[in-house]
Amino acid sequence: MSTTEYALGTSLTYRGPEPYLGYARGRAVCEDGLVRLVRFTNGGQADTFFSVPGYVRVEGKYVPGFVSVQTVDGYDTVTPDDPAVIHFTAYRYAKNASLIKKERSTA
């Protein structure tokens, strides 16, 4: 297994030496701004070009969703001033999704 570190304390651990073998686990920023441990379903294989299904635990309950890579500011293109970070997005229709509250804007 090998681990790649990203910004904000996030990471992805691959099942083997190559990413195409799937993900074993990771740490991702959730919609509430907290970094949580992520486990992957489907063997850690992507279900689309942009995301991998997985789940986090909140208050002892599983929250299903997907993991994607974006920049800290939410863009797709990484720059030296805006590094890549792992994001977890809960499926809004799923059971327990309400346990992850969206972060409120301070503006």
Task: Tell me what the structure shows.
The protein is mainly beta and 107 residues long. It has one domain. Helix content is 0%, strand content 43%. The protein has strands at 2-5, 11-14, 23-29, 35-40, 52-58, 61-71, 84-90. The protein has a 7-stranded antiparallel beta sheet with strand order 1-2-3-4-5-6-7, with no helix packed on it. Strand 1 and strand 2 form a beta hairpin. It is globular and about 35 Å long.
Q: Helices and strands in order, then pairings?
A:
Blueprint: E1 2-5, E2 11-14, E3 23-29, E4 35-40, E5 52-58, E6 61-71, E7 84-90
Antiparallel strand pairs: 1-2, 2-3, 3-4, 4-5, 5-6, 6-7
Strand order of the largest sheet: 1-2-3-4-5-6-7
- In the predicted model, the low-confidence regions spanning at least 5 consecutive residues are none
Structural class by helix and strand composition: mainly beta
**What's the story with the biggest beta sheet?**
7 strands, antiparallel
What's the order of the H and E elements?
A: EEEEEEE
Helical coverage, percent range: under 10%
Q: What is the general shape?
A: globular
Using only CA atoms, what is the Rg?
13 Å
* Number of separate strands: 7
Structure annotation, total helices: 0
Averaged pLDDT: 87
